[in-house]
Design a protein that fits this description.
Layout (H helix, E strand, L loop, with lengths): L2 E5 L3 H13 L3 E5 L2 H11 L3 E4 L8 H9 L6 E5 L4 H10 L3 E4 L4 H11 L12 E4 L2 E4 L4 E4 L11 H11 L5 E3 H8 L8 H15 L9 E4 L3 E4 L15
Parallel strand pairs: 1-2, 1-3, 3-4, 4-5
Antiparallel strand pairs: 6-7, 7-8, 9-11, 10-11
Helix pairs in contact: 2-3, 6-7, 6-8
Length: 241
């Protein structure tokens, strides 16, 4: 059973989330303040943190920074703040995903499943990642069609670095600045046009329908996500919290 720490100062929403997550098989720990959240994270060792930014004592970004000082636990921000600056600040501080209120229950559960999927490990082996009809070898730095005798897909060094930065975090949102810093260097973090250009090049080479990508996804205003599995559409009429 995965343990989830839910940090939320609205008691009704906190109770609703605790009941819902517990019904889905999660062990739920709760906190209504930032300091309590840091204490619970240290004592309960959760597998995931769902964090509101608007807390009564500490700002949520401070909580993220406090956690990132000692743990890599996945963090999903759940906030009513919708400005791009708030989203960028949370992601730059170390959040893995950002969901705005109001939100659908199934959407939140899908985000939780996504960020808790096992990350790709390169220890002691030759890991491969499937992307649609293609297989990515992270050790040999190759992409080839999955069918027997499949042809290799030629990528430029920049295309490879961008693809690698995404597939090493399956299901997780990777912020634009983080991607740019990893691929081009920290001096180019405002060059979002190059990032879009190279993402489109990768989609043309690897997606079956580049205009409707299923694996190299855009999160508007925030960043990009590698989704190794086809996303199932959520049920219609989901009631947002």
């Amino acid at each position: 059973m995965n343990r989830v720490l839910v940090v939320e100062d609205d008691p009704r929403l906190l109770r609703a989330m605790r009941i819902t997550l517990h019904a889905r098989g999660y062990d739920v720990v709760t906190a209504a303040t930032g300091r309590k959240a840091l204490a619970e994270a240290a004592g309960a060792h959760p597998d995931l943190v769902v964090l509101d930014l608007g807390l009564p004592d500490l700002d949520g970004v401070e909580v993220i920074q406090g956690l990132r000082g000692w743990t890599a636990v996945p963090i999903i921000v759940l906030s009513g703040r919708t400005s791009g600056g708030d989203k960028v600040a949370a992601l730059d501080a170390g959040a893995d995903d950002y969901v705005t209120k109001p939100f659908g229950v199934e959407e939140l559960l899908a985000r939780i499943r996504a960020v808790t999927r096992r990350s790709v490990s390169v220890d002691g082996g030759s890991p491969t990642v499937d992307l649609g009809a293609y297989r990515i070898d992270l050790v040999d730095k190759r992409v080839e069609a999955r069918e027997p005798g499949g042809a290799e897909v030629r990528l430029t060094p920049t295309e490879w670095r961008l693809l690698e930065a995404l597939v090493r975090h399956p299901g997780k949102l990777v912020g634009r600045r983080q991607l740019i810093a990893e691929v081009w260097g920290p001096a180019y973090t405002d060059d979002t046009s190059s990032l879009r250009l190279y993402l489109n090049r990768l989609r043309r080479k690897l997606e079956s329908d580049p205009s409707r990508p299923r694996h190299l996804l855009t999160e508007p205003g925030m960043g990009y996500r590698f989704e190794p599995h086809q996303s199932d559409p959520g049920p219609e009429g989901t009631t947002p919290w």
